[in-house]
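Hi D.,

Good news: the full-assembly prediction came through. Inputs first.
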Amino acid sequence: MGENLLELAGVTFGFEEDAPPIVEHFDLSVQRGGFVALLGPSGCGKSTLLNMAAGLLSPWEGEVRYGGAKLAGLNRQVGYMTQGDTLLPWTTVARNIMLPLELRGTPKAERGPKLEQALALVNLGEARDKYPSELSGGMKRRALLARSLIYDPPMLLMDEPFGALDAQLREVMHKELLATVGRLGTSVLFVTHDISESILLADRILVLGGRPLRCLEEITPPWSKPRDLDAVRGSAAYLALEIRLRGLLREANDLTLAQSPKSPGKAA
Amino acid sequence: MTGKQRRYKLVTTFWQVVLIATLLALWEYASDRWVPALFVSKPSVIGATIWKWLGDGTYANNLWVTIEATLMGFVSGAVAGMLAGYATGAWRRLGDILAPLITAFYTLPRLALAPLFLLWFGIDIEFRVVFAATIVFFLVYYNTFFGVRDVSAELIAAVRIMGANRFQLAWRVILPAALVWVAAGLKISVPYALVGVVVAEMLVSNSGLGFLLASNASQFSAAGTFAAIAGLLVIALVNDWLLTLLTRRALRWKTLGLGGQ
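Then the structure:
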């Protein structure tokens, strides 16, 4: 399925100069149009990988390549969505979603149509003039998704984007996310510690753990691309995969705890 | 407002008026009967003094001097406090370097600086302005500083990836996000600016409400002292009312959607 859009080649990174690094000589790649889930216990360093891909952290060694070129500084050709509510509370949903266009100096004439598109994409047309404090948790997630997609980034970096939602709402958001990135052909790097989330969404799951971080196993779920999540959830293969991943995740967790010097360490 | 709410407010106001009228009547009655009038004067005499001062320009002149000094002290202290608070909050290294210095000046009783300021600025308005400004500065400084530091790293990262440069980040995100804190700092510091000016006027000066207060008290004129306090009360109330109005407008988005989480 085409060449790699994102590549982390032999990256090493730690938060303290004199402590052993969290990530050492680590390789990771995401193909164009691919959906890669990084599954691991909290604090293992999977967010660190994501933030290197975003250019928020620069590796001590190795390099990050995006779209074929070496990344220097921030990666502004990605959408970035995290668990927290990063909508600006003092302005409306529409203004929030258009913020990247304003910041990037997109001509005013182009902003309107793009906004309409983004609102339609996530079904938020009704809420365009509301303030974030008037939105439900799910609507906030939709607004954040629309904001990170409005400038057509070829890739989305997502760090437990639905972590704060209840199970039912999360199911809805999973369907919407898959439909959206499927339609746009967006690649996704998705950090999670939720097993079922990784099985349902990803076409490659990397189980991560240990210190320094390593990939315990790479799993390719057998489902084709436009997938029916309800059917997947009911299948025997899903159950088998869930049991297998649960075992792997437990192993990853033990590894991370055993190899950490003191506390589990800070994952940024 | 529904009829029920309006009625509730009306009844509340009624009882407030009754309470104040009763207190004044009690005061009038008690003076010279239970307490010597020399100490507490009488509302009627105080009223007469207020009336006289309104007519002969005593209020107009002294009020204006005090208001002018308060405003100047407030604005200069607040602007300096916001700038310094933003700079040290956004630029961690600078904040860490300056932290002990700022803490030292903050904990120093400001009144101890008065003789020095007097030496430098004389007894004119500059002294009062500087004195009030040093008080306002720290209140606004700390609120701005913590407001800026309080902005989540997650939000800053997201906005930078969205395309914000340093200036956009400061102007579009950090400042508005810190505004809740800054507004709180500004609101609490206005009364302190007035306190600073009045204290300075009471220490040494030849005009202003503080001067009026101190000179009447030193001449054992209880009526004059109370009349000066009445003037201060009016400034304080008008101040508070204006500020409430302004901050409510600026932070309107915060009170929207009370059902949100």
